Amino acid sequence: MNRVLVKRVIMFVLLLAACVFVYIYFSVFLPIFLALLTAMVMEPLVKWVKKLLKSEKRLLPVIIVFTTFMLVCAWGLYFTVTRVFNSLYEWSLNIPVYAKDIQVFVNDQVIRFNEFIDEVPQGDRIVKEIEKQSQGLTDTAVHLTSQLINAIGSALQSIPNMVFVTLIYLITFFLFSLDLPKLLNMFFNFFKPETSGKLRFVFQKMSKVFMGYWKAQFILSIGVFLITYISLLFISPKVALIMSIIIWLVDIIPLYVGPALVLAPWGLLAMILGDVNGGLALIVLAAVITIVRRAIEPKILGDSIGLAALPTVLTMYFGFVFFGVMGLILGPFVYIAIRSAKEAGLFQLNKG
Questions:
Q1: Would you say the pTM of this structure is higher than 0.90?
Q2: For 65-102, how does the pLDDT look when each residue is reduced to its tens digit (9 = 90+)?
Q3: Integer CA distances (angstroms), 237 to 81, 85, 242, 286, in order
Q4: Which one of 87, 221, 228, 242 is most buried, by most CB atoms within 10 A?
């Protein structure tokens, strides 16, 4: 009994040390974790393609799923980037017009201000104070501009690193997807048959949870698509369909901001280009969709993964507090994994 207890203590300490190490260097392991998570999420699709092709080997189904995943991501990235650059290009063509309007406005205000100062007693003191304050504003503007330039420079310098990390993610995702059944069997073989059976039960339960999660995300994204499309028919009818599709694809991705990732920048660009009403409408639409989605998400997500709304909200909240956006997504899964492990009897201690 003492040996078993010592062995369990050692295993617990090693596991705790590994968890602490991964937590400290989480950013280093993040691409690998995302690749493994993506492979597990895509596994039902790989099995479906394998069954459709009646193929005994996984290579061709994995290539089909991986290529489809790459094409969808590439198309979404290309369309988003080209849309942003086209908007910036159109805006740059109107810079002379904007500059002329601003100059006319400023000159008019200067004339009015001078007329006002001439009529005010001790106007020279007011002018000196304004000059003093304007110097502080100028210094602040220069400082902010310098910070912006440094941020842009840092972003440009990080592009090679981002490309390298993305390649690592894609390569490991493909390899994980290709050998996922073998990797799972190797993992299960580390344990005794009884424990292995319990772990298989937990993994089967979690696979159903994953499917339920994506089912809930799909239902929510369909609702977002319909609301966005109907709203954009009034705001920007020419691009309502294509932008609704892009927002729908972005919304499926488990990001906390969701549709605001597209609508908010689009609204800001529209305001810069002169369409203030349209830009404000897009920003309001982004806020409304985000609030409504976050309000109904716990209920739909809880029903899909077999978890009540209150535990879903609490696990999402504490996950976000301790681990950020990733914890917001993984919080319910961790809770269900622990509950499934308890149901399988993994937490039962031997007596005597």
A1: no
A2: 899 888 888 887 777 677 667 766 766 676 676 667 66
A3: 21, 21, 10, 17
A4: 228
